[in-house]
Amino acid sequence: MRAFKADLHIHSCLSPCGELDMSPRAIVEKGLEKGLDLISVCDHNSAENVGAVMRAGRQKGLAVLAGMEISSREEVHSLAFFDTEEQILRLQDIIYAHMNGTNRPEVFGDQVVANEFDEVEGFNDRLLIGAVQLGLDEIVEAVHSLGGISIASHVDRPSYSIMSQLGFFPEEVHLDAVEISRHTSVRKALAEIPGIEKFTIVSFSDAHFPEDIGSAHTTFFMEAPAVEELRLALGGREGRRVSQTALEG
Known about the structure:
This protein is globular. It has helices at 24-33, 50-60, 85-96, 105-108, 136-145, 162-165, 186-192, 227-235; strands at residues 2-10, 38-41, 63-71, 77-82, 112-114, 120-123, 149-152, 177-180, 201-203, 218-222, 241-243. It is of the alpha/beta class. The two termini are 26 Å apart. 27% of the residues lie in helices and 22% in strands. α1 crosses α2. The chain has one domain: Metal-dependent hydrolases (TIM Barrel).
């Protein structure tokens, strides 16, 4: 068993809100500089830069999970994690089939697709900043059907969170954990968010700028940087666990 210092919520230059210097190789290099053992890029409603980040991670020696941040019909954000690019692209197919609209770069920003050498390969013209026409329960079910993990994003935030949009944790939505932002702590979240005590709480950076990578992290005690190990850690099973020390604040 070893400790994995993880930041699993990072946006690349594909996200319209992400900076252009959040390129695949730059993200990996900054993650290593910050002492991270495991990262995931979770762009809005797309995984087109995931493969590049995973390849850059293999080249540089940093473990990378395939990820995505999805905005539901209710405008609730959630994170999805998988082991492979193939799995996340299957989820992307589902998400793309339920999206509408075209990006307006002059309003929302460029959505840059880059390779592992930080070369621009193209631009995504979908409206990634928008909500998909799937409910949160449908998204979580789709993630699980493909073998992934689903975590509610930044539940303490006053917008685009399960609490801001719904005001409670629906029993029919089978989340694997909840994320709090770097602007709060476990202690404060437990005091202020009804029902959060039912879930394992994690915290990641939600970085949109290189300097923010690793500004919040969670340590997982696992055998390997893999989704099934992460699932065991979130459930506190078979000796795997989540360290709350860095989250207490």
